[in-house]
Amino acid sequence: MSRAEQGRLTVVPRPPPDQCGIILHPAGHTRSPAMHNAAFAALGLQAEYRAFDVPPEGLADAIQSMREREIRQLAVSIPHKQTVMAHLDEVEPTAEQIGAVNTITLRENRLVGSNTDWLGAIQALERETTLPGQQAVVLGAGGAARAVVYALCERGAEVLVLNRTVERARDLCQELGAKGFGSPDDLEEIPHSVLVNTTSVGLSSDESPVRATSLRAHSVVMDAVYEPAVTRLLRDATERGATPIGGKWMLVYQAAHQLKLWTGLDAPLDVMASAFDED
Ligand code: ATR
Question: What's the CA gap between 2 and 128, in Å, rounded?
């Protein structure tokens, strides 16, 4: 007979859920809470993931309040991935080299910054191809490009960086050890087997960062843009006989790595991917 049936109900006090979340600005719509909360529920974890709108001038306070409120886990998004590094106690070497942090973990009262974006990029690409020895082209030279270029170099691909502002491509190329740089218009002349768009071109619009004629059959084309799910670039790629990979996968895999970092548990990928689709 249970205690309730005996009329002596014992309420076991439960600790409040672990607080975690993402800091970004403007908050807009982010699918991270949906993905992480679905994963927490599937794993039976008492944790709550929220989006915090933190403008640049509020970053220092937000990090301080993370310490005070013992928020154990924070994801970092635009525009804080680079500036947040100065506020942490430690930045892991990979994140240091990429020059961006997308994950903060409170470990023994120390805030440690890591980067899982590059791991997300590798895993997303490896859904369709192997990377060593590939001729890869990365479009863009911002924070997302840095993670993708690092990932491709790390996996032994030969990487060219093409960006509207060519000097930024040159700097990134030299810093991360890519093979060369240029402008997106150069793609027509560049044989490649892997192409990754990290620019914002195509975000909520029907534009592509490159001409359809410069896309190659049998190549793999990944777009970091995930809204719309099928961008103009991915549509053009499919029409040219290339294999498309949607930006959703980079996001799902980087989130899965964050979860692993924070909890030590393997992420339920299917659950997170479904939550992404449904949000
Ligand atoms: P993120 O951290 O998301 O990479 P970012 O640092 O602002 O964001 O970088 C945005 C990238 O998209 C840059 O490579 C940018 O090119 P520039 O360096 O020339 O600014 C690229 N980008 C944005 N809008 C673009 C456009 N209309 N045409 C071509 N490239 C564009």
Answer: 53
The pTM score is 0.92
Atom of ligand 1 nearest to the CA of 100: 2
Q: What lines the ligand 1 site, CB under 6 Å? A: 78, 140-145, 163-165, 168, 198-201, 209
Which domain covers residue 124, as residue numbers?
Answer: 119-249
Whether 142 and 200 share a structural domain? yes
Contact 125, 222 (CB under 8 A): yes
- Claim to verify: residue 145 and residue 220 sit in the same structural domain: yes
- 8 A C-beta contact, residue 27 and residue 56: no
Residue nearest to atom 4 of ligand 1 (CA): 142
Whether residue 84 contacts residue 54, with contact meaning beta carbons closer than 8 Å, is answered with no
The answer to whether the beta carbons of residues 197 and 226 sit under 8 Å apart is: no
Report the relative pairing of strands 110-114 and 90-91 from DSSP bridges.
Answer: parallel
**CATH value at residue 220:** 3.40.50.720
**What would the pLDDT profile of 68-119 be if each residue is shown by its tens digit?**
888 889 999 999 999 999 999 999 999 999 999 999 999 988 999 999 999 9
The protein residue whose alpha carbon is closest to atom 31 in ligand 1 is 199
Q: Does the annotation mark 260 as catalytic? A: no
- Are 142 and 89 part of one and the same domain? no
